[in-house]
Every structure is written in structure tokens, then in C-alpha cells.
TrEMBL record:
This is Histidine kinase. Keywords: Coiled coil. It comes from the Bacteria. Residues 166-214 form a coiled coil.
Amino acid sequence: MNNQLSQRYRIIYEAYSKFANGINRCGSVGEIVEDLQMHLKYLLNFHSIKLLLPQEEGFLLLSVFSDDISYRIVEKESLLPFEKSLLQKSIPVRTSDIPIELFRTESDFLKLKNPELWGWSFQKNDRQVLVSLISDEQKPFTFGDVEILKLVTDCLEAKLQEILLKNQLANRNKSLSEAYKTIKLQNDQIQKIVENQKEIIKERTREIMEKNEKLLHISALNAHNVREPLSRIQGISQLFEYYDEKAIREELIPKLNTSLEEMDSVLQEVIEMASQELISLKAEKT
């Protein structure tokens, strides 16, 4: 009897070593599934095992059937009543009252002989893992198997957490990389806008300086042209008190009229030049 027990433990130890080594080499949840399909059947008797690992967005559900393994993220609201009880109270479950939702089809349930549902809430490093297992007379599960199941669960939980954390880190790095690219693109666009504004300001400044130079040139030219006839008019007006009426009428007034006509002509030119410049400025602005 002792030899049989010793041999059984040796077989379980070898099977667990292969299982654990395989899990440690896994780099994805898909690879974990392959390792479970290969080794788990040599460690435990079961018809199905269900693992629930709490995550930020819900629970990672790992469903293991005899011939099929699947995984997905589920919400807390989708947990079954006994699972919610395990989550809150951590009291182990053993019952023949099995929710039909744990079976893929009703025929899977009908094939079993006196099935039992086992459930646990395993704690490790402040992390909680919910485990449920269905067995029957054909594939019996006993209290002596709980420690093996706990070892398997600890090994799976540690590796799954590692992979999930790596995936989260990769996703966050990807988000940061995309955010950096977006910010860089926006900065490049802003820089182009700034450079364009600089060019526009530079061009507008150049245009204003050219227009100011034109206006200064016109102002200087007009001041010179206006000053000459204005000076003659001023000089003639000062001679009125020294001339008699006849001399004023015959000599000064004709000269005064000539200077006034010249003054009028110069002013007309000033008005014409200013008008043309204003029209030019408006056309450039448009």
C-alpha cells in the first residue's frame, strides 16, 4: 500500500514538474492553454475546471473541459451566485446542486454519474483566484487532491498575471507611443503655422516699409514743389506796401496770379499723386 502511494506521489510529482516547467516557458495565454491540454489530465480527475482571475476590467475566465480549453474576459455581473459567494466570503463549496450554466450542453450534464461541484477562493499575495471543479464517479475528486489543485492554480495564476501585466505594459507603451506621435505631429503643424506667420509678418513689414518710403518720397517731393511758388507769393505780398496802386495792378498782381496758378497746379499734382497712391494701396490690400 505504501509502495502504491509512493509510486502515485512520484507520478504526480513528475507530472507536475513537466506541467510547471511548461507553464514557466509560456509567453502567451494561448501557450498556457496548450500546456494545460498536454499535462493537466495527468494531475487531476475532473470533467471541467473554471478559473476566475480578477482584472481591472472584470475577470479573466479560463474554462477547462476534457477536450477543450477557452479563455475570455467577463464582467462581475455575469458570475454565478456561488461564485459571488466565494468572492465575498471565501467559504469552500461542495455540492451536488450544480448550475446548468457550468456545462456546455445539457447532454454533457446527463452523461455524468452523481456529479459534484467543488469551489474555492484561493488567496496569494493579496490576489484572489476563484476555482470551481466538476467531478463524478467516473472521474472522482477527493480532498487529497485539493493541494495538487492549489499548486496548479498558484502556478497558473502567477504566469497569467505575468503575461497580463506584460500585455498591459505593452498596450500602455503603445498608447504612449501613439500619443507621442500625435503630439509630435501637432507640434510640427504648430511650428509650420508659426513659421508661416513669421513669413507673413516679414512680408507685411516689408510692404509697409516700402509704402512708407513711397509716402516719404511723395511728401518730400510735394513739400519742395509747393514751397517754391509759396515763397514767391509771400515775397510779392510783402511788396504791396512799397508799390502804388498802378504798379501793384500792372506788376505785382500779374506775378501773383502766375504764382497762384503755379501753386494750384502743384496742389493738383499732389492731390493726383495721393489719390493714385491710395488707389494702389487699396488694390494691394484686396
